Structures are given as C-alpha cells and as structure tokens.
Amino acid sequence: MSIRTSLKKVLPPISITEQEALDAGDVWIESSIYQGKPDMQALRDIPQAKLSADEQAFMDGPVTELLNMIDDFELGNGKHIPQEVLDFLGKNRFFSMIIPKKFGGLEFSPYANSTIVATIAAKSGAIAVTVMVPNSLGPGELLMHYGTNEQQDYWLPRLADGRDIPCFALTSPEAGSDAGAIPDAAIVTKGEYNGEEVLGLRVSWDKRYITLAPIATVLGLAFKVFDPDQLLGDKLELGITCALLPKSHPGVELGNRHDPMGVRFYNGTTRGQDVFIPMDFIIGGQKNIGRGWQMLVSCLGAGRGISLPAMGVATAQSAFKGTVEYSFVREQFGLPIGRFEGIQEKMADIAGKTFLLEAMRVLTTEGLGLGVKPSVVTAIAKYHMTELGRDVMNSAMDIQAGKAIQRGPQNTLAGGYAALPIAITVEGANILTRNLMIFGQGAMRCHPYLKDMVDLIHSNESSADAEFNKVLRKTVGFSVKNAFRSLGKGYLPFLRESESALPEVRKYEKRVNSISAKLAPLADLSLAVLGGDLKKAELLSARLGDVMSYLYGAMAAIRFYEQRIEDRKLALPYFEYAMQWSLQQADQAIVNFINNFPNTATRGLMRLLTNTYTNSVAGISDDLVRELSIASMQDNSVKEQLTHLVRVTPGDGNDINEQAFKAKHAVAHLLGKVQKALRKEPVVPFISFEHALNKLQEKGVVTADEAAKLHDYNEKRKLAVRVDEYTFDMELVPASQTLKAIDGGQNAA
C-alpha cells in the first residue's frame, strides 16, 4: 500500500465549503513569514498608498460635512438615524466607494475606503457601520465580480446613487459560523413571473443579524438549492447560491430590528416562505447555482481587511487622543495624572498599540490596493486590530475612570466602548477567526507544497501516487531546510540578517527573522505529527497563527516607521513599544505552543530546533513605559499623525479636551512660574486657582497678560475635567450652569 493511500484512509475528508474557503483569496507577504524567511525587501517595495485628489476632496467636503451633521449622543438616545443623514449618505455616494465610476460609483482605493470609514467611526459607530456594509461584503461586491451585464447595468447605478439600499443575508438562527449548514432552502420549479411561466426557485428563509435589513430596498440572499424533479440535471443538491431580491417582490419580509448594544445602526431580520423567484434573480444567472459559497469567500477577504479593522483603529485613535489630553490636564496631588506610574503603564500601552494599529491599517490597505485579496492577512487584520482596539479602549476607560462612565455629549469614549463588541462579533466571530482561520488557512495557502499534497491524497487519478511522491520529497527537503535555518538563527545570532539602514530598526528586524525561522519547523512538525487532527487542536493552531500575526504586525510597524514617520526621534518610543510588544507576544505564543504540544518526543525536538528551553519571555522595561507615556502627552507631529482620524467638531468632547490640552502647553512655563511662587510664599487660604492667581498678580509675580492667559487656560481646564450632568428628570444641564457652580465653590486647580 502506498504512503498516499495510507494517508487517504487516515486523513479526514475536506468538505466542499472547506475546500472553497481554502482555495479563496491570494497569498501575499504572509507566506514568507510562514516559510521562515520574511521578505523585507518586498515589504519595503510596496507602493505607498496616498489619497488621490478626488479622495482628499471627498474627505475635505462630504466627510467633513457629514461629521458636522452627526450628534452621536442624540443618535444613541433616539430610535432612528435621521432621514437627512441617510439622504446625505445616498446623495453623496457614501454607499458606492467600491463601485466603478462607469456605474456612477466613486471607485476609491482600499486605503481611502479605510480612511473614510475610520474617520466616521471615530465620530459615530452607527454611521460608520451604515457606510461600511454596502462597501464590504454585499450585493455591490458580488455584482461587480459575478453579476451578468444586465444585472450590473441595472443595479450598480441604483446602488451607487442611493436609490437602492442593499443588505446581504447569510446568517441563520441555526447556522452562523458554519455557513455550510444553513437550512434556508430553494427548490427548482416552475412558476409565474410577470405573467409568464418561467423556470425558477421557490425559496424559504429565516435570517438574523442582517445589517441594513430594516431599511434595505434590495436583499442579497444565500440559500441552498435542491432539484428533486431534476429540472436542471441529475443532481439533487446543487449547493449554496446567492440571489438578489427587491424588497417589493411578493413574499419578501424586511423590517424588524435588533438592538445591538444600543448602537443605532439598522440591523435586523428577513424572512420568506415559499417565495418564487425567476432564475434572473440569481447573481450571475442560472450558471452560478451552487457557486454561492465560493463567491462569498472570494469577496469576503477584501472587506474583512478594511471595514472592521478601520473601526478598531478609529477606536484606538479616539481613545488615545482623549486619554493623553485628559491625563495632561487632569491633576491630582498637584501633578498631572499622566505623571503617575500606574497611569503611565496604561498610557504607554495605549500609545504603542495605537502606533501598531495605524501601521497595520496602512500596510493591509496598501496590499489590497495592489489588487491582491490575501485571505490570511485580512483575517489577521480583522481579529487582531479589533482586539487591539478593545485593549486600548479598556485602558482608556481605566484611566478616565469616573469621567469615562458618565454618558453625555462630552464623553468621547462611551460610543466606541458600546460599539466595540459589534466589531469583535461580526464578519466571523473573533474566536473563530483566531482559532480556525488564521493558521488553518495559512498552513494550506502559505506552505509551498501542502495544498498540492492534500489534493493529491484525495485524488482518484491513476498518476496520483507518482505525483504525490515527488511533492513529498520536496516537502521533506523544505522541512529539513527550515530545521537547519531555525537552528542557525536560534543559536548563532550573527546569522540573523537585517536590510534596514536604521540601527534602531536592525535589532528588531533580526528578531523578526529569528522568530519566523522558529515558526517554520514548528508548523512542519505539528502537521507531520498531528496531521488532520491539528484542525481540531484549536488551542495549538491558534498559537501558531498568533506567531504569524504578531510578526505581520511587527513588519507593518517597521515599514510605517521607516516610510511614514517624518521625525523618527519623536516617534522612537512608540516604535520601540510596538515592536517589543509584538515580538514579546510572538515569543510567548511559541513558548505556550511547545509547552502544550501533546507528543513528548516532538516537544523535545521543538525545543532543540528553536532554542526554547525556558518559559521566560523578555518584557517591556519600566524606562520605556515612562518615556513613552511622557512622550504621548506632548503636542507634536507624532501625536497628530496617530490621531488624524479623529476630526474635531466645534463644541464636542474632543474639541473641549483639545483646547484645554493646547492651552496648558501654551502656558506650561507660566504654570511653573506660579507653582514656584506659591511654594515660596503660599496663598492662605487657597480658595481657588483664580483667587491665588489674582493675589500673585497683585504682588506683581505675574503680569496682567500672563494672568489673562492662565485664567483662559483654567476655564478650559475646568470644562475639560467636568462631566455631563442632568436634572432629576434626566434633562441635560448646560455646561455654563455647571461652571458657574464650580466658580462659586471652593475648588482648586
């Protein structure tokens, strides 16, 4: 019996849906990480994405106008998105950023798409979701790639100008992640349409969690097709199929809503019972019956790498901006709270991860801009960028504390905090993405021979044995090279190469190469020992996926630092934190993987090949934490670059915080002068900062002009540290009234 035949008996069969998912998408720089040789030259050669003139004009025009229309607090307290906002979105083609210009769309780049969605998300999660869905997986994307000419010519212009609002229904109460198990079914039959008897489908469905469904005018729908009367051939089950149904079509039910965490985007249900549709409703026509899952997974990758990662970055930038500004202005025990080491630990984490997130956003959208659809990279982006956004937000909530939990127009965190679970949950729940997709797809797509081996194992061709033996020899040779590379770079540091011209980058690039070299033999050995069982060993495969993911993040940070940072001296602590954190996570994943590998002999071999004999992993020093936290409170180009997605609207919470932050920087030298004078000759009693300042002015310690600047700062400070308050019946009290109360009290600076 041949090796191939033996393996065929042992390995579990791959289902059609699994095979189509594995076949979907392209391979990009992640393959070099998996194979132990990160292609840093290819990374550096990727063209830099920039907004075109049209894209910048859209940012400066419609996007800015939209942000000025949005009151996210009022939106959260209401039931509906204002109709004027929805009309504005349609009129200005926010729903058609991916639709080609020939159909009336904007045809923006992935980088622009991400930037626009993230900028809106920093203001309102509800509006961002409303915009992102038509520009992600949905009817527009499917029509562009698979629709007939007639379907494209009719639907795409209507979607482009907002005459029609689309939704796409895949998830059923009985089938979420396991889309292949959807119970929604269609029977091939004949029926009446437009007064004629035609061949079509009688469809029944029950879907939930469908964004925009309550206001959609056209429904994209996924279901299984059966042909019991063999009207199309001799097969009974024809597979998952995608169709496009107008809301006005008889039997289509749209309208009921869910309430996702009180975030007021439209999300709800759609149902239909024995609804007859003609074959023309199938996206791409009758020939695409059964191709629905392939169509979906092929299109999902690009959207997954743009929309939800953009929300994660927006959350981080908004939290970073509000928190460092508040930490600089808010004082306790005579010091800005950002000077306390407990706060600094959180602030450094916020700053370093915000740097990492922006770097990953830029690199991922630059890759998508090349025209590739890297399914593994977009899964990495979706999982890790939303999780990093959650980390940053939680740290920001810890720092802002009481201010962060009081809802109101001035709270810059509450909206993002409520919306975060949505990004974590949709387009593949994060647990699924990490445990099954990243390494599961990565191993099959990034290994140079594995997919061919699996295909040949399950092949019934007579020549399969000979072809399999050829591929097996190549696979063994590949694994041997991986083992020697890992040994060399694990034990001989001088073999770890770096191509960077920057000395501060070279040490980290060498670590990236070393960790990647360790990943390759770990993946080879786990596949060889566990085989098909690795698919079930989710805890193990997730850790290998983590190594890939954190190395991808580290490569993104290197590219961002080298190519997008103008003043590297200012950005160095951000870069070092992002790199050290990413590589620490990758090292820890390797330690945990080896410690938990079920085969003792293999575990010992893994330790030898990777030079991993200890559970200790290098952490981030307290010195770097202190350095970065202090750097993050500076008003400079790096902070501006890492908060560029947050557009300040006059009078909103970000505006209030920013004014106080800038005002304090402007009078920092005067505050030092005042503090020195007060230490030398205290004002007793110290009724308030204003009172003390007036006494110092009377003594000639500060001039009238200096006192005016300090009073101006103090008014802005008081407004920044206040929180929204309400009457007993929950009517908002204007800030002017609360500040009068403060002025009349005994409050110190």
Automatic annotation (TrEMBL):
SUPFAM superfamilies: Acyl-CoA dehydrogenase C-terminal domain-like, Acyl-CoA dehydrogenase NM domain-like. GO terms for cellular component: cytoplasm. GO terms for molecular function: flavin adenine dinucleotide binding; long-chain fatty acyl-CoA dehydrogenase activity; medium-chain fatty acyl-CoA dehydrogenase activity. It is an enzyme of class 1 (oxidoreductase). It comes from the Bacteria. Residues 72-162 form the Acyl-CoA dehydrogenase/oxidase N-terminal domain. Pathway: Lipid metabolism; fatty acid beta-oxidation. InterPro entries: Acyl-CoA_dehydrogenase, Acyl-CoA_Oxase/DH_mid-dom, Acyl-CoA_Oxase/DH_mid-dom_sf, AcylCo_DH-like_C, AcylCo_DH/oxidase_C, AcylCoA_DH/ox_N, AcylCoA_DH/ox_N_sf, AcylCoA_DH/oxidase_NM_dom_sf. Gene3D superfamilies: Acyl-CoA dehydrogenase/oxidase, N-terminal domain, Butyryl-CoA Dehydrogenase, subunit A, domain 2, Butyryl-CoA Dehydrogenase, subunit A, domain 3. Belongs to the acyl-CoA dehydrogenase family. This is Acyl-coenzyme A dehydrogenase.
